[in-house]
Specification:
The chain is an alpha+beta fold. Helix content is 46%, strand content 19%. The protein has a four-stranded antiparallel beta sheet, covered by helices on one side. A hairpin with a 5-residue loop joins β9 and β10. α2 packs across α5 and α6 packs across α7.
Length: 318
Amino acid sequence: MAKVKAPKPPKPARRPGPPVPVARVWEFFETYTRDLRADDFQRVFTRETPEAWQMFARAIKAEEIANLPWHIRAAEYTRRAFLAFTLRLSPARRAIYGIGLVMAFIGMMDLFTGIHLLRVPIIPGVVSVAVPALTWPDGTLWLAGGFLVLNLLILLEVADRLTLKKDLEVARDIQQAMLPRELYAATGIEAFGVTRPANTVGGDLYDVIRRPDGRIVFALGDVAGKGSPAALLMALVVAMLRVLVDEGLEPEELANRLNVQVSRHAPASRFVTMVVGSYDPDSGQLTYVNAGQNPPVLRRASGQFEKLSEGGMALGMF
């Protein structure tokens, strides 16, 4: 007896959707324009661009060329504006930017087709005048416009970096003012420190504080990391150190209290290495705590050097 196969049920119809390329393009567009608001776009031209131009225009000194003929004044103003912007770049980046300008100029001249007469209507549909005009192929205007837009973006980015650099220089001055800047001299002791951060600001710190009883509290430390995050934490540690010293704490308790405060207020990825100690000039007694810092070197009265290798964990790790 022959077997008859039952027909397969039809597959459910799929809902029509956009082609894959279109969906990917739309996803890319949504990602690229995320968080874009109309007021942000408007602020670029109404506030950020004028502020950026004013930053560079200070170096032009238009009053020096105010009495020149208009055509010479325009050329000199353009030259000074160009230098005011490009001289803010590093030498290598300035050279690359100049090469880019030359390449763009050569490309525009290569597309140039000549000078042709262009009909300009005086009375539309009735009277027109033929005037000579420079002529380029279709699409050249889009290339020139894109080049100008990219230069505007470069102008704004350089202005932002210069503003940030100026703010960091002010922060560096404030940071340096927090540290002892002069030689500390007392009976039987002299102390002086200097720090030079790898970036504009950094996390190195040192301090020398005299207590009412004549003992000297000193500290030398380094915040993990570089730049502004390390500098902010460094300022916090120096402030906490001075407050705790005023409470008359001994080095061990002082280090324990600093560890609690750093653990509480600093990010989990940050810690501070520090040597903090107390020195009595009258008795010559030195008490210190090393929290993860490089071992200090002690020079005794006999001239022998001794490495103080005992220590513990850095502040803020646990």
